[in-house]
Amino acid sequence: MNLDPAAVERVVRAALEEDAPSGDLTSQALVPAEAVAEAELVAREAGVMAGGAVFAAAFTLLDPSVEVEQLVPDGDSFAAGDVLARVGGPALAVLRGERIGLNFVQRMSGIATTTARYVAAVAGTRARVVDTRKTTPGLRALERYAVRAGGGHNHRYSLSDAVMAKDNHLALVADITAALRRARASLPHTTHIEVEVDSLDQLDAVLAAEPDTVMLDNFSLADLRTGVERVAGRALVEASGGITLDMVADVAATGVDVISVGALTHSVRALDLGLDVVLRR
Fold it and tell me: Which of 34, 191, 213, 245 is deepest in the core (most CB within 10 A)?
């Protein structure tokens, strides 16, 4: 469940620059330069922690003397009222980093919390819950880390990682089977090939090309079960398309191997967390 430190620094530095391009006018006008503050990251609601390192970077990149202690590890659950982390150091750095640190940890913990609910809903089935490329531009590394913190898994990271032939690709080829076979012949043997199928009518032509994964997109539960039966273990079967928490258990029960959920990242609600100053000197 590693998070690339270089990605953290790049994203957090950009956010800090965006938030205070010429400094924090309010804090600089009101707070003595020598003031020291201690603050606590407090949960206003229950959830799953994610983004502790990103939260810390919002302060330490401003001033390395700021100390951040994470009390609840990433991936662990917490209750409303729990103290998740403590921050201590020069007050100007604590105040300037507050909103950026909160923005990241609130969003990442929201993703982890939502993911954990999906994962719990499919427990006991063969299905793996995965994210999609529907991430916030520039934040993919952070958001996909948060999915892993919630117990989920990642789909391909980018367009460069695997072949995924979707409806718009297939609309531009005359013979689906032939096109997929040409793709297989031109690629390294290690490259994974996945093909999106919009209806059962397409399935035989796709399976004839021996893909690694077949995505059944926006299928009914009955058609998912039929699709799994027809694939019969010749490829992994992925279900996708508007899968909500209310229906994910039923989707998993059809026997699919993978359930991809764009909502884990594209429309998740940030958790309500706050940073409260508890001591100043």
Answer: 213
Known binding residue 166? Answer is: yes
CA distances from 64 to 27, 90, 100, 133 (A): 19, 10, 16, 34
Q: Which domains occur in the chain, in start order?
A: 5-119+269-280 (3.90.1170.20), 122-266 (3.20.20.70)
Say whether 133 counts as a known binding-site residue: yes
Question: How many whole angstroms separate alpha carbon 207 and alpha carbon 227?
Answer: 11
229 catalytic residue (yes or no) = no
The 10s digit of each residue's pLDDT in 177-190 is 999 999 999 999 99
What is residue 280's predicted lDDT score, i.e. its pLDDT? 76
E-strand spans in the chain? 36-43, 47-48, 67-70, 77-78, 83-90, 128-130, 163-165, 193-197, 213-217, 236-240, 258-260, 273-280
217 is catalytic: yes
C-alpha–C-alpha distance, residues 255 and 233, integer Å: 11
Catalytic hit among 99, 181, 184, 225: 99
